């Protein structure tokens, strides 16, 4: 590390210590261990927590401004209900009603205005240049002009999506941003569900579909009905929230979405962590029991699960056998090639090995296919086909 970089870090540590009320020595230690990392390039003086610590979630981003340090807290992890009915009574004890929202399937983004510039942060606290270009199409600058102290948290969904491409939302042809939480900068404190809807309505900002409030005793049945409907249209599930946003939210998802995750991931079976597969299979077990399925429904569930596991794997093995390389193809659509170049660098920084195809002009924008190399699945499959032992 250069001398001037060290001086910059010292200044940052001093200011961050005041803002976060964490001793300077502890922050310096975290910088050394790279729990706290400086991110250069797209925004000056930006730091991120690569791992969470008490009170500061993973992905918390810190910015040095003229006034000191501004903090955009990491988005809190949402725990999953496996058995809906018992979870509702234990988790929401003390409340009488719950708010139910659609859980949209894309990637988590936090938007904030820092020194007058609107930026989009992905889960880990990096500024994504592609997302930043895109969110500005959905969220006008006027919101942040009036509320520079707010953070909009939402999901980027749609097919032109370099992280989680899904073509399951009829109104989204390319990629679009839907808000699920509005939070205060620095404290991370959320607005209530009512306040969020009022504020977003006022600025014409899209929010995730809202199913309304349910009394706690009818919620499990109502949510099961919503989940069945959502599943039929390939959607992911719901997030169940305390209308006052004082208790943590919980999530519950559809069997169809679990299967579509498995179908996708088993095509790259060696690149995904084993827990990804295991936790999804377990979900299916609990849902089948809670919904007390008859023989026919159970058989359907078993077949669906087996097909979601084996079919993509067989197709990957055959592809490799024919000498094809295993890639995960995604696409982006940009107005300026500059954004694509910056995004290429962003992916490299995240350690993703990808190749960008030549841009094609579609409706005045550049459509670019990105081939992510799933090296581990590729190599392992090739080796096994050549006789390697497991
Ligand atoms: P993590 O919980 O760390 O994000 P994960 O991959 O397990 O990791 P998901 O299973 O996708 O996360 O569930 C949590 C995510 O769901 C949130 O981070 C958010 O991006 C997304 N989400 C979609 N719709 C909503 C909603 N209505 N309210 C809150 N979060 C939502
Ligand atoms: Mg998700």
Can you walk me through this structure?
- The chain is of the alpha+beta class.
- The chain has 4 domains: 3-72, Nuclear Transport Factor 2, Chain: A; 79-253, 2-Layer Sandwich (D-amino Acid Aminotransferase, Chain A, domain 1), CATH 3.30.470; 255-321, Methane Monooxygenase Hydroxylase, Chain G, domain 1 (Up-down Bundle), CATH 1.20.58; 327-385, Alpha-Beta Plaits (2-Layer Sandwich), CATH 3.30.70.
- The protein has 12 helices and 17 strands.
- It has helices at residues 3-20, 24-32, 84-91, 129-138, 141-146, 193-202, 216-232, 255-266, 274-290, 295-321, 337-349, 375-385; strands spanning 36-39, 46-49, 61-65, 68-72, 79-80, 97-103, 107-114, 117-122, 150-157, 176-184, 210-215, 237-241, 250-253, 327-334, 354-356, 360-362, 365-373.
- The strands form 4 sheets. The protein has a 5-stranded mixed beta sheet with strand order 5-13-12-6-11. The chain has a 4-stranded antiparallel beta sheet with strand order 1-2-3-4. Strands 8-7-9-10 form a 4-stranded antiparallel beta sheet.
- It binds adenosine-5'-triphosphate and magnesium ion.
- Residues 75, 77-78, 101, 103-104, 108, 155, 180, 208, 239, 249, 251 line the site of adenosine-5'-triphosphate.
Beta-strand content estimate: 15-25%
Specify the overall morphology. Answer: globular
CATH class of the largest domain equals Alpha Beta
How many domains make up the coordinates? Answer: 4
Main sheet properties = 5 strands, mixed
Q: Average pLDDT across residues?
A: 95
What's the CATH H-level superfamily name of the largest domain? DNA ligase/mRNA capping enzyme
């Amino acid at each position: 590390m250069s001398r001037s970089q060290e001086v910059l870090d010292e200044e940052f540590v001093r200011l961050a210590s005041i803002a976060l009320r964490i001793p300077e020595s502890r922050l310096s230690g975290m910088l050394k261990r790279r729990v706290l990392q400086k991110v250069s390039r797209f925004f000056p003086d930006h730091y991120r927590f690569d791992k969470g610590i008490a009170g500061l979630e993973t992905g918390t981003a810190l910015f040095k401004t003229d006034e000191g340090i501004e903090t955009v807290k990491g988005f809190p992890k949402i725990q999953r209900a496996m058995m809906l009915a018992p979870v509702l009574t234990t988790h929401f004890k003390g409340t009488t009603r719950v708010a139910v929202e659609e859980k949209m399937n894309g990637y988590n983004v936090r938007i904030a205005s820092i020194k007058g510039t609107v930026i989009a942060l992905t889960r880990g606290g990096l500024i994504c240049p592609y997302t930043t270009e895109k969110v500005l199409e959905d969220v006008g600058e006027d919101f942040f002009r009036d509320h520079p102290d707010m953070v909009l948290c939402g999901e980027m969904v749609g097919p032109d999506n370099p992280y989680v491409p899904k073509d399951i939302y009829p109104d989204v042809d390319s990629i679009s941003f839907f808000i699920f939480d509005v939070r205060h900068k620095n404290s991370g404190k959320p607005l209530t569900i009512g306040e969020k809807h009022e504020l977003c309505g006022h600025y014409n900002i899209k929010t995730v579909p809202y199913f309304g409030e349910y009394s706690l005793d009818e919620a499990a049945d109502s949510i099961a009905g919503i989940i069945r409907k959502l599943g039929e249209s390939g959607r992911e599930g719901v997030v169940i929230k305390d209308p006052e946003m004082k208790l943590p939210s919980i999530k519950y998802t559809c069997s169809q979405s679990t299967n579509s995750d498995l179908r996708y991931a088993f095509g790259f079976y060696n690149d995904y962590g084993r827990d990804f597969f295991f936790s999804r299979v377990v979900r299916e077990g609990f849902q089948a029991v809670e919904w007390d399925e008859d023989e026919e429904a159970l058989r359907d569930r078993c077949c669906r699960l087996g097909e979601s596991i084996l079919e993509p794997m067989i197709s990957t093995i055959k592809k490799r056998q024919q000498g094809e390389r295993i890639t995960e193809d995604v696409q982006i659509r940009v107005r300026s090639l500059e954004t694509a170049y910056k995004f290429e660098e962003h992916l490299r920084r995240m350690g993703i090995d990808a190749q960008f195809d030549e841009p094609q002009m579609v409706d005045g924008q550049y459509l670019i296919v990105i081939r992510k190399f799933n090296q581990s699945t590729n190599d392992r499959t090739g080796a096994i086909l050549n006789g390697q032992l497991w």
